[in-house]
C-alpha cells in the first residue's frame, strides 16, 4: 500500500487493531500502530482508544503513555475520559508523580475534572496508601461544586478503613447519612467491615439495625463482612449465631458458606464443616475452587490426606478445575506423611494439566524428600526446577540449604549460601542462622565470629532464633565471654532469652570451669519464669562433677527430679563419670542401679564409664561381668573400653579371656595402642606362654609401637625359663638398645 501511494482507511486500521485486541495480542497491536506511524500513516482515533483501554486492563502504563502522546502529536482531541483512563493506570502502579503530572496537563488544557475522574483518583491513590492525597481530591471536588456520590463516599470510606483511620471513616459516614435519605448499601458494607476489623462487633450489629430502620435490607455481602471479621478474631460460636440470624434478611451465598467452612476447619471442627458443605449443596449452591481448596488444605493439615485426595479426585474438571493452590496443599500433605512418591506423581499430574509449579511446591518436594532420607531425589528436584525455568526464591534456597546441612553435606551447604548471592538475592537473618548452625554441627564453630559480623554489616536484624544460633556458636568455639555479651545485647534489644539461650551459655561456662557464673545464670533463668529443661540441668551436673564438686552435682540432680523432670541417659552418664573419676566406685554402682530402677536404659557410654572405673580400682572381675552384660545388650565397646578391659583382665591373670578379647578387638578393625601391647606381652609372659608373648613382641615392633623396659625384662625372664635362647638374645639386644637410647636422652 505504501509503494502504491495509498494508506489504510480509518476503518482498516481500527479493524486490524481490534482483531489483535480480541486475540489478546496487545504487543502486536502496539507494534502495528508503530509501523503505521513509521510509514506516515494516521491510525484511527478509535484504534488508539481501543488499544489504550485494553492495555489499561493489564496495567501497561509505558505503552499507554506512548500511545497517548502520539494521539496528542496527531492533533486528536483528548477527552477527560481518556485522561482518566491513563491517570488511573499510573496511580494503581504507584507512579504518583506521573499521575499528578497528567492531572496538571489536563488542567492546563482547560479540561475540568469530572466526578468520574475524582472517584478514580480517590480510589486509585488510596489503594497505594496515599490516603492524604485521596482526602485532598475529596475536598477539592467539593470545592469545585461537584457533589460526591455513593461511589465517592464508599471509596473514601474504604481507603480510610484500610489505613486503620476508623474515626475519620465514622465521621465521613455520619456526614453521608445526613445528606442521603437512603445511604448506599456498599457504604454500609464498608463501615460494617471497618467495625468488624477493629473488633467493634456491637457497633457493626448496630449499623445493621440502622440500615434496616432506613428501609434498606442488609445484603449477604453485609453479613459476609461480619462473618469474615468474626473469623479473623476466632469467634466461631458468634459467627454461627450470625449465620442463623442472616437467614431472616438475606439468602446465604457461596462466599457465606466458604467463610464458615474455613472458620470451622481452622478450629478443627471438620465434621461440622462437612455439614455446612452439605447444607450448601441442599441450597443448590455448588462448591467452587475456593470451597475445594479450603477443604483440601484443612484436611491435609489435620493429617486426613486420603479424604483430601478423594475430594480432589471427585472434582468435575468441566465445572471446577484444580489450581496451583489445590496441588500445593495436596503435594505438601502427602510429603509430610512420608508419601513422597505419591506427592511426585501429583506434581507430574500438575505438569500434565499445563500448570507451572511455583517455588512453594518445589520447596515442599525438596524438604520432604530430604526428610525421608532421600537426599539424591531432593537434589534432582532442584535440578529439574532449574531446567524448567523456575527461579528459586530466598525461602526455597534457605530451606534447601537447611536440608543439605542436616544431611551433613557441609560444602554443598556453603555453596548454596554463595548461590543465594550469585542469584542476586540478599541473604536474610534466616540464611545466616542456617549457615552458622550447619557449620557448628559440622565442627566449624570458629567461623561463627566472622559470619556474625558479616551478618551485622549487611544490616540483618537479629531475631531470637538468630541470637540463639550465634550464641551457641560462640560457646562451642570457646568464645564464652562474647556469648555472654550477646546475651546482654539480646535483652537490651527487647528479645527475651529462651531456655535455649540460657542453656548454651550455661553449658559454655560449665565446660571452662566457670561454674559459679553458670549457676548464677541458671538461677536468673528460673527467676524469669523460664522452664529449665533436662539439658540445662545436665550441663551443670557435668560441670560440677568434672571438678570433683560431686555433692553439688547430686543436689542439682535432686532439684531436677523434685521438679518432675526425669534424668536422661546423658544426665546419668555425667554423674557416673564424676563418681568414677573421684574413685567412688561403690557409689557409681549404686548410681548405675538407680538408673535401671528409674527405667532409664544405659547406653554404650554408660557401660564404658563403669568398666573403666572398675578397672582403675583393679576390680577386674567385676568389670568383666559388666563387659559381658554390655555385649549381651548388643552394645559395641569403643577403643578405650576394649584396651581398658584387655589390660584389666591381663593384670588380673585372666590371660585367656584377655587374649581372646585382644584378638577379637583386632579382628573388628580395632588398632591396639602401646599400653595394650605391653600389657598383653607381660600377661602372656607371666602365664608361661613365652612364645606367644614373643610373637606379640615382634608384632609390636612391626607396628612401630613402643616397648617398655619392664615389658622386655618380664619377657626375657619368661624366654630364659622356657629355654628359648635365640628369642631371648633378640629381646636382650632390644633391651640394651632401649637402655642406651634412654641414657642418651638423659645426657641431653
Question: What labels describe this entry?
Answer:
single chain, mainly alpha, 42 helices, 0% strand
The major pleated sheet works out as:
none
> Span between N and C termini?
110 Å
Q: Which secondary-structure class do the elements indicate?
A: mainly alpha
Question: What's the total helix number?
Answer: 42
Q: How many β-strand stretches?
A: 0
The global form is elongated
Average pLDDT for all residues: 86
Please give the radius of gyration in angstroms: 40 Å
**Oligomer classification:** single chain
Low-confidence stretches: 1-5
Strand content: under 5%
Helix content: over 70%
Q: How would you portray this structure in words?
A:
- With about 750 residues, the protein is an all-alpha fold.
- It is elongated and about 125 Å long.
- The N terminus is likely disordered.
Provide a concise account of the structure shown.
With 748 residues, this protein is an all-alpha fold.
Amino acid at each position: 500500500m505504501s509503494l502504491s501511494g495509498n494508506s489504510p482507511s480509518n476503518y482498516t486500521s481500527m479493524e486490524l487493531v481490534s482483531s489483535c485486541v480480541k486475540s489478546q495480542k496487545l504487543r502486536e497491536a502496539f507494534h502495528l500502530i508503530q509501523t503505521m506511524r513509521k510509514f506516515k500513516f494516521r491510525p484511527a482515533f478509535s484504534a488508539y482508544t481501543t488499544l489504550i483501554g485494553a492495555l489499561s486492563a493489564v496495567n501497561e502504563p509505558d505503552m499507554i503513555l506512548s500511545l497517548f502522546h502520539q494521539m496528542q502529536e496527531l492533533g486528536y482531541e483528548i477527552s477527560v475520559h481518556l485522561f482518566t483512563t491513563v491517570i488511573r493506570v499510573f496511580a494503581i502502579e504507584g507512579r504518583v508523580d506521573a499521575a499528578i503530572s497528567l492531572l496538571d496537563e489536563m488542567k492546563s488544557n482547560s479540561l475540568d475534572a469530572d466526578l468520574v475522574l475524582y472517584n478514580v483518583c480517590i480510589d486509585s491513590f488510596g489503594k497505594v496508601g496515599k490516603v492524604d492525597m485521596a482526602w485532598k481530591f475529596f475536598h477539592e471536588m467539593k470545592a469545585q461544586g461537584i457533589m460526591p456520590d455513593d461511589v465517592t463516599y464508599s471509596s473514601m470510606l474504604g481507603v480510610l478503613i484500610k489505613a486503620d483511620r476508623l474515626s475519620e471513616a465514622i465521621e465521613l459516614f455520619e456526614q453521608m447519612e445526613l445528606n442521603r435519605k437512603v445511604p448506599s448499601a456498599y457504604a454500609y458494607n464498608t463501615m460494617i467491615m471497618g467495625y468488624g476489623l477493629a473488633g467493634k462487633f456491637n457497633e457493626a450489629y448496630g449499623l445493621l439495625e440502622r440500615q434496616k430502620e432506613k428501609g434498606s435490607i442488609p445484603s449477604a455481602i453485609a453479613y459476609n463482612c461480619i462473618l469474615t471479621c468474626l473469623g479473623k478474631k476466632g469467634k466461631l460460636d458468634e459467627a454461627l449465631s450470625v449465620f442463623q440470624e442472616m437467614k431472616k434478611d438475606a439468602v446465604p451465598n457461596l462466599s457465606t458458606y466458604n467463610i464458615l467452612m474455613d472458620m470451622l476447619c481452622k478450629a478443627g471442627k471438620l465434621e461440622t464443616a462437612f455439614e455446612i458443605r452439605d447444607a450448601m449443596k441442599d441450597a443448590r449452591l455448588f462448591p467452587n475452587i475456593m470451597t475445594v481448596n479450603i477443604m483440601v488444605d484443612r484436611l491435609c493439615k489435620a493429617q486426613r490426606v486420603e479424604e483430601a485426595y478423594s475430594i480432589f479426585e471427585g472434582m468435575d474438571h468441566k465445572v471446577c478445575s484444580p489450581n496451583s493452590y489445590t496441588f500445593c496443599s495436596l503435594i505438601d500433605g502427602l510429603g509430610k506423611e512420608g508419601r513422597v512418591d505419591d506427592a511426585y506423581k501429583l506434581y507430574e499430574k500438575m505438569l500434565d494439566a499445563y500448570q507451572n509449579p511455583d517455588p512453594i511446591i518445589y520447596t515442599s518436594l525438596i524438604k520432604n524428600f530430604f526428610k525421608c532420607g532421600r537426599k539424591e531425589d531432593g537434589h534432582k528436584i532442584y535440578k529439574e526446577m532449574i531446567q524448567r525455568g523456575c527461579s528459586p526464591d530466598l525461602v526455597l534456597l534457605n530451606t534447601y540449604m537447611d536440608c543439605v546441612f542436616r544431611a551433613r553435606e557441609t560444602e554443598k551447604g556453603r555453596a548454596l549460601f554463595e548461590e543465594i548471592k550469585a542469584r542476586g538475592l540478599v541473604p536474610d537473618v534466616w540464611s545466616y542462622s542456617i549457615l552458622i548452625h550447619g557449620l557448628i554441627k559440622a565442627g566449624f564453630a570458629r567461623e561463627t565470629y566472622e559470619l556474625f559480623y558479616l551478618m551485622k554489616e549487611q544490616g540483618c536484624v537479629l531475631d531470637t532464633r538468630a541470637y540463639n544460633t550465634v550464641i551457641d556458636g560462640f560457646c562451642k568455639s570457646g568464645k564464652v565471654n562474647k556469648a555472654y555479651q550477646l546475651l546482654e545485647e539480646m535483652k537490651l534489644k527487647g528479645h527475651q532469652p529462651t531456655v535455649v539461650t540460657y542453656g548454651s551459655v550455661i553449658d559454655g561456662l560449665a565446660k571452662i570451669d566457670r561454674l559459679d557464673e553458670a549457676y548464677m545464670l541458671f538461677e536468673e533463668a528460673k527467676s524469669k519464669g523460664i522452664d529449665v529443661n533436662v539439658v540445662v540441668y545436665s550441663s551443670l551436673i557435668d560441670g560440677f562433677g568434672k571438678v570433683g564438686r560431686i555433692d553439688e552435682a547430686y543436689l542439682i540432680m535432686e532439684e531436677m527430679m523434685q521438679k518432675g523432670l526425669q534424668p536422661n541417659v546423658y544426665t546419668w552418664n555425667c554423674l557416673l563419670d564424676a563418681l568414677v573419676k573421684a574413685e567412688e566406685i561403690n557409689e557409681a554402682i549404686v548410681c548405675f542401679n538407680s538408673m535401671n530402677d528409674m527405667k532409664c536404659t544405659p547406653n554404650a557410654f554408660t557401660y564404658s564409664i563403669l568398666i573403666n572405673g572398675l578397672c582403675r580400682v583393679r576390680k577386674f572381675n567385676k568389670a568383666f561381668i559388666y563387659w559381658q552384660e554390655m555385649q549381651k545388650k548388643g552394645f559395641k565397646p569403643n577403643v578405650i573400653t576394649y584396651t581398658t578391659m584387655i589390660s584389666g583382665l591381663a593384670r588380673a591373670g585372666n590371660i585367656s579371656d584377655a587374649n581372646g578379647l585382644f584378638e577379637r578387638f583386632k579382628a573388628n578393625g580395632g588398632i591396639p595402642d602401646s599400653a595394650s601391647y605391653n600389657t598383653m606381652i607381660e600377661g602372656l609372659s607371666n602365664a608361661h606362654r613365652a612364645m606367644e608373648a614373643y610373637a606379640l613382641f615382634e608384632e609390636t615392633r612391626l607396628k612401630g609401637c613402643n616397648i617398655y623396659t619392664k615389658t622386655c625384662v618380664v619377657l626375657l625372664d619368661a624366654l630364659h625359663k622356657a629355654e628359648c635362647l635365640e628369642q631371648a638374645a633378640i629381646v636382650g639386644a632390644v633391651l640394651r638398645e632401649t637402655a642406651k637410647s634412654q641414657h642418651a636422652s638423659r645426657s641431653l
